[in-house]
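Batch job 17 of 40 flagged for manual review because the log was empty.
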Amino acid sequence: MTTLTIVRGGAIRRPARPHTSKCDQHPRYTAGCPACQQRGRIRQAAREKAAILGALTDYYVPAIGTARRLQGLTYAGHSAPTLARHLGISINPVKEWRAHCTQLITRRTHHTIARLAAQLEATPGTCRKARTYAIQQGWVPLAAWDDIDDPDGWPVEGSLTGPIPERPVSLRYVGWALDGDMPVGRLTAAEQAHLYRVWCDREQAAGRVAGRKPFAREFGITEWQARQIAAQAAQLDINPNHAATGRTNERTAA
């Protein structure tokens, strides 16, 4: 039998619908458990309500700093399984955070990973595969950042131990460099050559002079570097029809 309560003004208040806020059988969420599923729905509804009211404004922070810290630890030789063990979580979230698959992360997780990075920064890892993978991805050491949490920051010059390793041409990186949002030095040799050809096409289409010296001035590099990039571009036959896909073909020898 449902009991109704008459409050001031004659309004009728119904009792709150009973729900399970905590599962007594499982300390953590367990798939297939109705109580856990109900708890998950309640927590999700609370998050959505709090977000509407603005209560979560300071609960989440940008995840870029977390991604850079995990990348730097990987560069130091700490594998994803090792980092997951340090954090006491599964490996999948570590890989997702490291690859910057999410734009926001909880403040608690941010501080936890920041403390872990501070603890392991001076301790080289033992996994060579992790370091090799980090180099292939173009990741940099923790010390390469002036402000690791600055979304607009770039690694300091000379922070890398060697040239950027070769990888498939990334049109996204080329586009960033073309717009001035990424240093030319962060591109691979093939990407620099692709940038030079695309930039020359753009300048010529606009009726401007395209060449090594204007290229060096616009992108803030030396003329010697521009000459090396131009020479690399001359060895590539980039099909304009494939510019959207980034496919490049080596020019066949005559």
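Reviewer: the log was empty due to a logging misconfiguration, but the result itself is present. Residues 171-250 form one domain. Unflagging and moving on to job 18.
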